[in-house]
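Example (one chain per record):
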Amino acid sequence: MSTVTPFAVLALIGAGSGAVTAWVLLRRDRPAQVLTPAARREGLDPATEWKIFADEREVRLAGVHEFARLADRDPSLRQDFVDHFVVQLGYGWHELAAWQARLWPVLLARLRRGSPRFWPGMDLHVPSMVLHDVDLRGCELGDATFRDVRFAGTARFGGAVVTGLVSFEGARFTRHALFRGATFEAGADFENVVFTGTASFTGVTAGGEVWFDGARFSAHTDFSESALADTSFADVGFAGRTSFRDARFRDAFFGGARFSGHADFTGATAERFRFPRARARTDVYARRTWPPGWTLGPPSPRKPGHWAEVQVT
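Predicted structure:
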């Protein structure tokens, strides 16, 4: 969801009632509060509309629930609800983590497959903000974008299915990022992502291209048993124990990648592995198993430490 300026908000609200316009004018210094034109055209009742913009947290939460129930009955409102839900996630309460924890169950009941209230085909576009303890396990989405989002607490995406575009470009995971068994049907973009804690991509599948270019993995990293198409790890830093055990690739590109700790490619297969300028640190203890046909060359000093390039045997 793109950033909405205060001027754009005023333009949208001007189409509505004078009372709502006055409300926005009084609160121009707060995060944007937006109802999409479709939701306004279809006619949220005034009581629900006022609740979702209320200053009282419990009143606002009740309004969010009412909006969701309206969308349960009217599928044309569902994407509008999801877009508005994202705005609510970033609302400036002092206890943002507690507020988000109250909000998420409303949406998750509509995104998880098998739920009696499941809404198929929803897009989730989150702009740059802080998200606390995200748990999208078992959810199904169309497009999903989390560009420049900071994930505070463990982020769980296990078993999630994204049928369209998915992007975490520039995101920061301050704790663990758990994607075990997730499916990215159209590929995924993890360029320049920082993984501070465990990064688990065990059993992940991707039908299209996947990019991790410029990503930083600071701790245990696990791609074991994943099934990926063309995948680029250009200039990636693997600082901790890294496993690609039994992973399957079409084309696996590790140009300029750096391995500081253990690296295990046992059983990993690809139509083509490429390691141009990839190197591993040799002045620390690390066990490494490279794909067949690849090995480390002679070490040479660099700052910091000593490194050797990954070369064809």
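Caption: Residues 57-73 form the longest helix (17 residues).
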